[in-house]
Amino acid sequence: MKELFPIFSEKKDGKSLIYLDSAATTHKPLSVIERMTTFYTKEYSTVHRGLYDLAHLATDAIEKVRKSVAKFISCDKMEVIFTHSATESVNLVAYSYGEKNISQGDEVLVCVAEHHSNYLPWKMLCKRKKAHFITFDIHDDGTIHLEDLKEKISSKTKIVAVSHQSNVFGIINPIKEIAEIAHSKGAVVVVDGAQMVAHEKVDVKELGADFYVFSAHKMYGPTGVGVLYGKYSLLEQMEPFHGGGGMVEVVDSSEIIYRKPPYKFEAGTPMIASIIGLGEAISFIEKSDTSKIKELSILFYDALKKEVDFLTPLCRGMPILTFTIKGMHPTDVAMLLSLDNISIRAGNMCALPLMQRLRKSSLIRISLGMYNDKEDLLALLNAISSLKQER
Question: Which residues are catalytically annotated?
Answer without folding.
Answer: 350
